[in-house]
Amino acid sequence: MSVPRPEAPALLPHPLTGVPYPSPVPPGTGWPDDPATPVTPVAAEAGQVVSLAGSSGDLATLDARVSVCRACPRLVSWREHVAAQRRASFADQPYWGRPAPSFGDPRAAVLIVGLAPAAHGANRTGRVFTGDRSGDWLFAALHRAGYANQPTSVHAGDGLRLGGIRIVAAVRCAPPDNKPLPSERAACAPWLDRDLQLALGGLRSILALGSIAWDATLAAARRLGWTVPRPKPRFGHGSEAVLQADGRAVRLVGSYHVSQQNTFTGRLTETMLDEVIGRL
Ligand code: SF4
Predict the structure, then answer these.
(1) Which of 24, 83, 173, 222 is spaced 20 to 30 Å from 75 by Cα?
(2) What 8-state DSSP symbol labels residue 227?
């Protein structure tokens, strides 16, 4: 006979700060690096993503608005369900349960575009690629390349800093089975568009992790009026394309995603990842 799991406590301590939070975490309540406040405007549907993204005058505003977005009902429901249930190994800690904003250097010359937060990674910690095996790989590589001040990324507030590089996701909420629907990818696209626009002043290159990030970046570039080579550049590990953006050349580089599926099987090795990061 199965024993019912006891009711979760309403508040659990953040693993680093010890401050208690509910899951999901309300905006502006002191979670490390939470960009939002209780009055940050919330996008409740796709049209509001367009207007709030377009009117974000700087990255801080954009990150704050991203982090409270509720435009995709299926994803909001999933991310909050995961946050409330939690995985047994993380049952003693609160889950962020909100969209993951960008992370890194706001004046970065290099942007990394990933797919979406992991249910028990960024959806738990509130920081992209933080708290899962994918992040272990990525941040170790960024440290080897001199972009990160430490090789590990465990929790928001753990002292990790990036220099010259910033990370965003093509879709900002954790999707079931890591598969956002086309409608959800489309709803989230204006956040990525604005991220690219705000980064453009100093942008040199973009690393797309996986084919979905590659396609999302090319689609964003077209929407922004950048010149994209024709025929459409094909994704592959080490693929490159040069995008012309307002008189500036931005190099797009492809890499297999740092997912466990790729790293455990040897499809992506540390040497392969270091090599593409070295080209940025
Ligand atoms: S996926 Fe993007 S658009 Fe949809 S709710 Fe999350 S942040 Fe908002």
Answers:
(1) 222
(2) B
Cβ of 113 closer than 6 Å to ligand 1, yes or no, is no
Q: Which of 40, 76, 168, 172 best tests ligand 1's pocket when mutated (most atoms within 8 Å of CB)?
A: 172
Instruction: Please count the helices (runs of H) and the strands (runs of E) in the chain.
Output: 9, 8
Secondary-structure breakdown of the chain: helix, strand, coil percentages, each rounded to the nearest 5: 35, 15, 50
Distance 45 CA to ligand 1 centre (A): 9
Q: Is residue 60 assigned to a domain?
A: yes
- Which of 188, 193, 195 has the most ligand 1 atoms within 8 A of CB, as the residue to mutate? 188
- Among the atoms of ligand 1, which is closest to the Cα of residue 71? 5
- Ligand 1 pocket check: which of 173, 178, 185 to mutate, most ligand atoms within 8 Å of Cβ? 173
User: What span, in angstroms and rounded, lies between the C-alpha atoms of 125 and 164?
Assistant: 23
The pTM of this model reads: 0.95
Helix (H) or strand (E) segment spanning residue 211? helix 211-223
Q: Provide the domain limits for residue 90.
A: 12-277
In a domain, 6, yes or no: no
**Domain membership flag for residue 5:** no
The single-letter code of the amino acid at 174 is A
> Domains in the chain: how many in total?
1
pLDDT in tens, 173-230: 999 998 999 999 999 999 999 999 999 889 999 999 999 999 999 999 999 999 999 9
C-alpha of residue 73 to centroid of ligand 1, in Å: 9
Q: Give residue 246's pLDDT band: very low, low, confident or very high (50, 70, 90).
A: confident
Q: Mean pLDDT over residues 161-166, rounded? A: 98
